[in-house]
Design brief:
By secondary structure, the chain is of the alpha/beta class. Helix content is 38%, strand content 24%.
């Protein structure tokens, strides 16, 4: 049957009532998830237990473990990854010295997206064809996009960290979560049940698919939230902020979930306040990136700060040469992904790392900002546009929207194998004449701000 069959809609409504809601959550978290984990040949639950044990230790012991892991990934990279093998030889770098003093790491240069793109397969410890791997494209909000490859162990640890972090804020397996996702205009109604249906059941998760954040789109989102009432809702803060403003304006506020988990872009203090007040929820921030996964989380709430998961990577921050007020840029060395180790990776995000008796914390965070672009009179977030270009159009290395022209100009850097005519045809199919399309090179993309930072939208 189709996923929109009346019986399935009735079942969804039925299982949103108590006590069936709790029974479903227990069956999902403690029966379906282990089955799914086994079928997908993944190992996540033991890693969650490992994280619980690690963070039950005092910081002194955790720091020692982190330094040992730092030295281990450096030794591995120097032996197995061509780029690092050559770099270590040129620098006469000895990974064992890091165990005595982690500051020895500063003898190595910073890793950037430019280096990753330039080095290509020389960043890998083994050919992709020889192992199970997962490709993850960076968003491009802090530099031109590149692709990061995870091995299975690294991907499983990344999932475990998310599970553990949410567990710390009360999101246990039997409590439901809801994710905001892009709705594609040519999306067909799938058959039920599918692999994705079972995955969502096992995760006790549902999705809200949206493609607009005007009043009509926000009303649809609000009605869906009121019907499902998840424990945790996860989205970009700009989307949730737009919803909070709409609900406050139209309904005087309302409550449909307990926790809002913000990710993907900077959570501004004002937006946090409005979301918490209008939607009557706890707001939890996290810091993650496609290159490494979730690396910091407000596990003890806003007052506790953004705690770095030093079990997963070594944090640094360097004073930026391009920011006049002496802001710090965040740098990470990841521990888990041995297919494509990232050592001293300069994230492009501004944050300062502070070490206390409780752990490493991020302060003065300035992250990615996703703009809103009008398309045919309807407001669309840029992450929706990016999803459309990546998953429906394809063949695009990078894009930028110039709002200084009428209509806006969509500047596209094509993959070498892509075709301009075919790409234009697909763009017109989805967005008609909303954009003037220009095919450009990377050097033609506009840099904005005092840091000459890449942004998907140029407004001035």
């Amino acid at each position: 049957m189709r996923a929109n069959h009346p019986f399935l809609r009735f079942s969804e409504t039925l299982f949103l009532t108590q006590p069936l809601r709790t029974f479903k959550g227990l069956a999902a978290g403690y029966v379906a998830y282990p089955i799914a984990e086994n079928r997908e040949k993944r190992t996540v639950r033991p890693k969650i237990a490992e994280l619980r044990r690690h963070y039950a230790l005092p910081m002194k012991e955790r720091r020692h473990i982190a330094v040992e892991r730092l030295a281990a990934i450096l030794s591995f990279a120097g032996a197995q990854v061509p780029y690092y093998r050559d770099l270590f030889q040129a620098k006469q770098f000895d990974p064992e010295k890091v165990k005595r003093d982690p500051r020895y790491l500063e003898a190595l240069p910073y890793l950037t997206k430019d280096i990753i793109r330039e080095q290509g397969d020389r960043m890998l410890s083994a050919p992709l064809a020889q192992m199970r791997h997962h490709a993850c494209k960076t968003g491009g909000s802090t530099g031109l996009s590149c692709t990061i490859y995870y091995d299975q162990e690294g991907a499983d640890y990344s999932s475990a960290v998310t599970f553990y972090a949410r567990e710390r804020i009360g999101k246990l397996r039997h409590r439901s979560e809801l994710h905001f996702a892009c709705r594609f205009p040519d999306q067909t109604i799938p058959e039920w049940p599918s692999r994705e249906d079972f995955k969502c059941f096992a995760m006790n998760r549902s999705n809200i698919f949206f493609d607009r954040i005007d009043d009509e789109g926000l009303e649809e989102i609000w009605r869906t939230l009121k019907r499902r009432k998840p424990y945790l809702a996860h989205s970009h803060p700009s989307t949730m902020y737009a919803l909070a403003c709409y609900v406050q304006r139209k309904y005087g506020g309302g409550k449909t979930f307990d926790v809002f988990e913000s990710s993907g872009e900077l959570l501004e203090p004002h937006a946090r306040e409005v979301i918490a007040s209008a939607l009557r929820c706890r707001v939890v921030d996290r810091y993650g990136l496609a290159e490494l996964g979730v690396m910091a989380y407000e596990v003890d709430g806003n007052e506790g700060g953004l705690q770095v998961f030093e079990s997963e990577g070594w944090p640094e921050s360097r004073v930026s040469d391009t920011v006049p007020d002496g802001a710090h840029e965040l740098v990470f060395t990841g521990f888990r992904n041995r297919l494509m180790p990232l050592i001293r990776y300069a994230t492009g995000d501004l944050a300062k790392v502070v070490e206390t008796g409780k752990g490493f914390f991020l302060t003065h965070v300035t992250g990615r900002i996703h703009d809103v672009v009008p398309i045919n009179g309807i407001a669309h977030p840029t992450h929706h546009i990016q999803d459309m270009l990546d998953h429906r159009v394809g063949g695009i290395q990078e894009f930028q929207i110039d709002l200084r022209t009428t209509p806006p100009t969509l500047c596209i850097v094509l993959e070498p194998w892509a075709n301009e005519e075919e790409t234009t045809r697909k763009l017109r199919q989805y967005w008609q004449d909303a954009f003037t399309v220009a095919y450009v090179g990377h050097n033609d993309l506009v840099r904005v701000g005092h840091r000459a930072k890449f942004r998907h939208v140029v407004a001035a």
